[in-house]
């Protein structure tokens, strides 16, 4: 496996981890959700953006669609 694929997998894993933490906090409610709920979803969006950019870069460099 090349380095870009490893970084891509780490980025996608980060999205899932932040999503699960955010959803868990939302389901539980309370102080954690009030303090970090919005920040967790903003962080998820940032990680998703990075993951999509890495996917596009990987496809481009591997001679895929483009």
UniProtKB/TrEMBL annotation:
It comes from the Bacteria. The keyword Transmembrane helix applies. PROSITE patterns: HIG1 (PS51503). Residues 1-66 form the HIG1 domain. The chain crosses the membrane at residues 6-31, 43-61. Keywords: Membrane, Transmembrane, Transmembrane helix. This is Hypoxia induced protein conserved region. It comes from Ruegeria marina.
